[in-house]
Amino acid sequence: MKRLKIPLVIYMVLFWSVFFCLNSFALEGGEYQTPNTWKRHYSVGGIKYSAGSVAPGGAEVALTAASRTVYRYFEDSLTEEFAYLRLKAGNIEAAGGDIAFNLYLRGGYASEKFEPETFSASRNGFYAERKDDLSALRVYQGNAVFEDIIPLTAVTLGRQYLSHIDTQLADGGNIDVSLFKKRLTLHALYALPVSFYATDPHTYIYGGGADASPSDFLRIRAEYQAYDDRTQEYRNDVIKARIDGKIPPGNLYLNYKRIDSANDIQAGAILDFKPVVEGLGGTVITASARTITDSYGEEVTLFLDPYSTSLGQEGKNTILAGEISQGIREWLAVSIGGEGKIIAGDADYAHRDFSRVYASIDLNGVFSPTIYIKISGDIWTAPKDGNLKEESTFQIGGEISWSLGDFALWGGTNFQKYRYYYPEEERTVFLAPSLKRFEEDARTFYLGGEYTLSGTGLTIGADISVVSSSVYSAYNNDFNDSMDTRAELMLNWVL
Amino acid sequence: MKKIIITAAFALSFAITAAFAVESDKPETHDGSWKTRHGKVSKADESECLSCHIDRIACIDCHQDSKPRDHTSAYVYKGHALKAQWSRESCASCHTDSSFCDECHLIAAPSNHKRGWGGDLYNSDGSSTGRQGRHCTTGCHSLVASGALIFGNDRVTRGCKTCHQTLERNSGGVHPPNP
């Protein structure tokens, strides 16, 4: 045993000292990027490219189409299909200005129809969108932009993302008037907010605001919007203001929103420090504090607060959050962050303190030039408060991306644990609360890849994921198969 | 000695390969911490994002179109309730659609609404049926923990109201219809 230990120590010292001593060309500026397939670790599907850009100097058309087929086996087999179409035509000269058209559609179809008022673990958000039909069409964008047709203005008509201090999908019109070499922009809008899950022809938004940049380091915005529901005869007045200040390492901001009489104030910093020690990576620090000074939600439109009807009013609370990311050598970065919520008033199940701690390790190009690995975990804890018991969730996982020429591969795994209390059923004593502690877990594995046919704009991909969980058998003892499997086939075509 | 040389060669080859970055055409800010901070950065100056993410297609792709990997059926069944109760802000980065929660909660019954869940505790004239539905002795979303199980207590009925949104406080009278 002794004879084996000494060489092992030498091996370890040699192995790690090489990494620590060599400089790398990869870390220019102290930063290093995640790979192109990074997004696949968070969600699969959709149009892969944004149809590129429409080059200035002439009218161009960009077209992208995509298709995604999902086969799922859980309680029963289920097939979902999605088709995407994106069309952009821009730089069409007219009347001294430019016109651009933008269209982005998603059609969806599923083979299963779930009976109402019946529980099914296979039911998902797509069912909620489809209702009784098996298909659903989403128009994400369908608008025309008229720039400088009226001098100094940009008019957008149609389905668009109203993007001022916040972003809202709506059908209608928005006009921006830019003055003083775009140092000051005034806007006015009138639109109907869009929901993919419910039809609401009665609520409309109108308002206006200003966006001023008196210097390259300061930006001040203010706006007013009214959400008016003519059917229920109520109206929500929303006032927003925001200040952004650029400082050498980053950005400071102060954000204010007032919905009727409730104030929502947030301040924060996003700081990106270049490395001060040669060979060490950069440091990114984010910090924020947010406070809601009044409860709201009782008479607020769902377009402003979609949660109150399910969770009750948003109560007074303060949220503090912070994260620090540090590059260590050329191939390693670590991040750690936390978030905490402190409520005011009595706690209940949807209004209680909680805290969250998370951390991650990024390994860049360690085993191969084009391999990226991330290991991450987080813990959420809601502490004991009066009759509320302590509850928590925990998750840890890893992901890997690997590029091989025109091929890209990705894979990952994740383990989640839920610890919570739930009323015990089949009690015999009435009026005596009895809570049972549950501890359940879920494991996810996924593997995927895609191939881009060079020179064609066509990408073919596939992804398979499996979820294994004790949660399923808890509700149905006859359901022996505790695994939910999804296989997806993706086609992307950029013309 | 042979093993040491082999190990050193092995380590050196790794070091050489570590000299090159992973393939990426993203700017240097899009590092591992970008997922958690890109939202705040985009609010400061969205035009910089839109220079590459034209027309917000990439934003729509993640935030609107396809669900994230952790939204498994287990998460839909259990996990989302816990996290939504503690931090509705964590849901709001994607779920801004006004009726998303309601469209499931108004239509889909939870798993404990099985045989024996319903049943009248009282007749409409107030007389006891002698039968006790399980919904009287249990609750939803751990609402029982929020207070004593007293009929009419608003905190008790809060969990039921997640779905039965027309539920009125009462002292043992007629129950509301299904959603």
Describe the structure.
The complex is a heterodimer of chains A (495) and B (179). Chain A is mainly beta. Chain A contains four helices and 22 strands. Chain A has a 22-stranded antiparallel beta barrel. In chain A, β16 and β17 form a beta hairpin. The longest helix of chain A is centred in the N-terminal third of the chain and has 20 residues. Chain A is globular. Chain B is mainly alpha-helical. Chain B has three domains: 31 residues, no CATH class; 28 residues, no CATH class; 83 residues, no CATH class. Chain B contains nine helices and no strands. The longest helix of chain B has 16 residues. Chain B is flat and about 90 Å long.
Keyword list:
heterodimer, A: 495 residues, mainly beta, 22-stranded antiparallel beta barrel, 7% helix, globular, B: 179 residues, mainly alpha, 9 helices, 0% strand, disordered C terminus
